[in-house]
Structures are given as C-alpha cells and as structure tokens.
User: Which sequence fits this backbone?
DNA sequence: AGCGCCTAATC
DNA sequence: ATCGCAT
DNA sequence: ATGCGATGATTAGGCGCT
C-alpha cells in the first residue's frame, strides 16, 4: 500500500496505523518492525552489519529457488529488482505444503544471527540462514525479504517518514492528554526526530515511547543523557570526543567509530589540549597536510581551548563579509591557490547553531563546480551502458564514457555516468544509442577487469557535456594512461550530465 | 602469505 | 557525493 | 524545502581460495 502511494502524508498515515495496531496488540513487535523499516539491525555504533550484497543474493537465490544464475540474471535485467526475481521464482515453484508463517520478529532475529556470523565459514552460514527464510516465504514475502537483505525497501518510505509515523502513533496510542500545544501531531513528530538526532538508538527510543508516550520526559535531551552512560552517549555523536577520564574517541557522521584509524589525531589532541579543558565534542574535518607549506588565520571560539601547531593542529581560515566581490575573491584564492574544494558560508546574524544530519540555510556549501565559470566541464562520448534498476527499469541506468585522445586517435574510458538526466532525457538517449549497438568494445581503450561489465556497447555517436568536481588518478579507467601514471589513468569526481552537445559524425570515421 | 572478490563506508 | 521527481 | 531513490570514484578490511 505504501509503495503505491506517492504522497508522504498518506504514507505516514498508513504506517502510523500499522504501528498503532501493533502497539495495541503485540507491542514487542514494534522494535523489530522499526528496525526492519530503518534497514538496520543494531545501533550504528555497534558496527553490526549484514554483510550481504548483490553477489550473496544471487548465490542464495540460485540455491533456494533453483534455476541457473544466468537465468536469474536474465530475469533481473527485465525486472530491475532482485526482490521481484525472488518473488517470480517462488510463485512458479510448486509448494509441497503451506510453510509455517514467517513473523517479523523471526525475520529480524535471523537478520541479527546473519550479522553475527563472522570469520570461518561465515558466508556459508549466512547463506543457510537466508535459505531458511526464503523457503518459508510465500506471496510477497520473498520480494521484501530480498529487499530487506539489500537494505533497500524501495517503497518510498525511509527514516524521516518512519520517525514521523512513530511520533504520531505514540501520540495516538497513549492515553495521557497532550499538553497545551497548538498542533500536537507536529510537535510529536518534532520530539521523536529530535530525540533520534541526539541519540540515534531505537532500542531506547521505542521502549520510551511505548511506556510513556511522546510527552515522556525520557525523550528530552538532558533526560536522555542522564539515562545512558557517558560512553554510550558519546558513541552516538561526532566526530572527536574528549571525555573527562582522558579518553579520545573519533566518530564519522553516521556514528561509525573511527578512533582506530587516526591514532595520530588521538595523541595530538591529548597532547595539545590545555589542561584546563575537561571535556568536549569537536565537529571538524581531518585533512592531509604538507607541513612544509603553511597558512593560518584566526577565528574565534576554539582558540582559547587549543594550542595551534603548524602541521599538527590548525584552524581553518575565514573572512567575515557581506561583500559579494570579497567572497568571490576568497573563493578564488581557496580554490586556485590552495586546492580547496570550496567554502562553507555561515550566517552570523541568526542563531546559527549546527544540528547533526539536519540541513539548514545557516550553513551553505559553496563549491567551485557549483559555478558556471569554475570547475571542470568535459566533452565525452558514451560507448556502453548498464541496464537500469528500480525506477530506471527498462531504460539504461548508467553509461560508460570515453574521452577522445587525438594524439593516438583513440577513445579512452574515463568514467561512468548515472545522474544529470531527466527521465525523458534518459529515454531519449537510450533510444538514440540503441540504433548503434555493437557486439563489443572494439573502438575503445577499456579495462575489462573492472566489474561489472557493461550490458550493451555502442558505436561512437553522441557527445555529452559532463561536469565534474575534479579529476582523480584512477586504477579503473584508461584516460591519459602513461601520462599521469605508468599504468593508472584519469577519472572524474562526481560526474553529471549537463548537456547533449552533438552527434559525432566526424569522429565516427 | 598473497591475491581476488565482495561489502560497506567515505566523499 | 549529484541529480530529478513528487509533494 | 523536504524526502526519496536513482546513480558516481575510491578505499579498507573480511573472507576464502591457492
């Protein structure tokens, strides 16, 4: 029902009703349902992952539902979704007897077992867990089992809508009358989203909602912090933490623990922090740095808390200005002189606080390639394509592009491209290139060890204008091989289509 | 021990 | 990361 | 403006095979 509906309000409504029903009947199922909908199996900081990808899915489908892998692949190219393949195979299988019903909790528990299979024979054991589920599945269950295993439910409902529905369901389900608030529904959603942004652990949020409703003080910031250990709390935030007891922890934006990856940062933070500072959470970015070069300019806040030391711990440079020309000049300097990607622009007039995972106009990214005259724009030739998946089923989902090397008179692969076209563009390009299909990569310098291999090859026909954030040395592409590196080529960072410029009538010869 | 495949993660 | 679509 | 789901280059680390 949710996947057929396009509006988020109605999707939220449907899920809200599901959750209310479950809260009222089998409340223990709420947490597993939430985890499955969130495509997670544990809080991010626990580092527990399914470890199941497309290759595993292909293998297990072949074993559980017969047919050959080639047969499955063919079906997949038509359907664009391994879940749909599973469903199709299952429904064409004769069923000896009606299997025992799968429950949400059984599925979620099995997913946890899969995630916990490690080391020797883990792949085989994971596969057997999945086979058990697939054999017990009927109707639409194989479809959703496979999509859940791939962490992509594809029903147009993700975390934000899940949190909203949770808040609304908890509001309706609890008997306590709402406090004197204008719009209780909106407020309930805000509270749950805020609780999640402060402490993204469903194991705490869901029980709190179930036992005390949305107005439960346990959902508020300070209460949450009081309710959990300091180390648990710090594990959910980002990215450098210094705790009273002298320990340093580093986390990614998605709460992955990265402390072990930066032992040098840990030791420098400990060394350079002043003894008067007892604890902090520092939002920052780590960059590689050439210590022979240098440039520092001060910016308030942080300065009273840290010793600056060139090459070890430096503050970012900044200007404060309303003047467009000055900002432009600063951007040019940053990009052209220091090889920076661009600037972050911050409002100083409003109370411009930073909230993790929340977009706002307080902080804006200004990158060189957002601008017409800066950034890299290239004329490239699409020479192969990949069948689209999901909403791109039936058209190509991505293309392999080449640049033309006039010195050698050859086309060299430079990047794949899968964004920038409208749905109509995609149909038009697919149709146009389909008139020039050839059997293999005969005009091109192309590394066939790079997987997956394209599905279809084309004669050179069109020239596309592609914008990128920059060039990278590539082990996977052939552009300029031997020039930038003995056996590495060049590829593009964040490539996207900006225009279809011409037919390559001349280059074809 | 070394290598290739795969997955999950960053941007 | 970028981008387009639906709301 | 927001949420979602198509898609990009690249890397690290786990697992299993030789």
Assistant:
């Amino acid at each position: 029902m949710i996947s057929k509906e396009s509006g988020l309000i109605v999707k939220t409504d449907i899920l809200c009703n599901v959750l209310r029903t479950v809260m009222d009947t089998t409340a223990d199922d709420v947490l597993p349902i939430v985890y499955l909908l969130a495509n997670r199996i544990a809080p991010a900081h626990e580092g527990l992952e399914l470890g199941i990808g497309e290759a595993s899915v292909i293998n297990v489908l072949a074993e559980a539902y017969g047919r050959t892998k080639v047969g499955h692949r063919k079906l997949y190219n038509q359907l664009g979704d391994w879940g749909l393949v599973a469903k199709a195979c299952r429904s064409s299988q004769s069923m000896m007897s009606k299997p025992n019903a799968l429950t949400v909790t059984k599925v979620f528990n099995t997913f946890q077992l899969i995630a916990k299979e490690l080391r020797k024979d883990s792949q085989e054991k994971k596969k057997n867990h999945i086979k058990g589920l697939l054999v017990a599945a009927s109707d639409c269950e194989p479809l959703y089992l496979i999509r859940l295993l791939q962490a992509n439910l594809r029903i147009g409902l993700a975390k934000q809508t899940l949190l909203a529905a949770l808040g609304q369901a908890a509001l309706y389900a609890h008997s306590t009358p709402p406090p004197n608030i204008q719009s209780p529904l909106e407020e309930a959603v805000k509270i749950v989203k805020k609780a999640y942004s402060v402490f993204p652990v469903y194991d705490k949020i869901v029980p709190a909602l179930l036992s005390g409703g949305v107005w439960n003080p346990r959902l508020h910031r300070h209460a949450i912090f009081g309710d959990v250990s300091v180390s648990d709390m710090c594990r959910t935030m980002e990215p450098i933490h210094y705790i009273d007891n002298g320990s340093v922890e580093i986390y990614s934006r998605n709460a992955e623990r990265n402390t072990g990856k930066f032992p040098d940062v840990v030791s420098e933070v400990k060394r350079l922090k002043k003894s008067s500072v007892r604890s902090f959470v520092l939002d920052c970015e780590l960059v590689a740095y050439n210590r022979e070069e240098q440039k520092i300019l001060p910016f308030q806040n942080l300065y009273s808390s840290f010793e600056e030391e060139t090459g070890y711990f430096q503050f970012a440079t900044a200007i404060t200005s309303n003047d467009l020309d000055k900002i432009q000049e600063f951007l040019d300097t940053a990009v052209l002189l220091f090889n920076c990607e661009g600037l972050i622009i911050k409002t100083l007039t409003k109370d411009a606080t930073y909230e993790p995972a929340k977009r706002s106009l307080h902080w804006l990214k200004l990158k060189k390639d957002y601008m017409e005259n800066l950034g890299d724009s290239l004329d490239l030739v699409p020479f192969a394509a990949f069948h689209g998946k999901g909403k791109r089923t039936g058209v190509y989902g991505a293309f392999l592009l080449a640049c033309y090397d006039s010195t050698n008179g050859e086309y060299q692969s430079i990047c794949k491209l899968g964004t920038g076209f409208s749905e109509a563009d995609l149909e038009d390009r697919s149709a146009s290139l389909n008139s020039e299909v050839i059997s293999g990569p005969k005009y091109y310098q192309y590394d066939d060890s790079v997987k997956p291999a394209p599905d279809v090859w084309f004669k050179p026909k069109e020239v596309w204008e592609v914008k990128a954030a920059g060039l990278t040395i590539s082990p996977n592409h052939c552009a300029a091989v031997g020039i930038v590196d003995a056996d590495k080529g060049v590829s593009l960072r964040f490539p996207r289509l900006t225009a279809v410029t011409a037919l390559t009538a001349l280059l074809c010869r």
Summary: The longest strand of chain A covers residues 376-387. The radius of gyration of chain A is 27 Å.
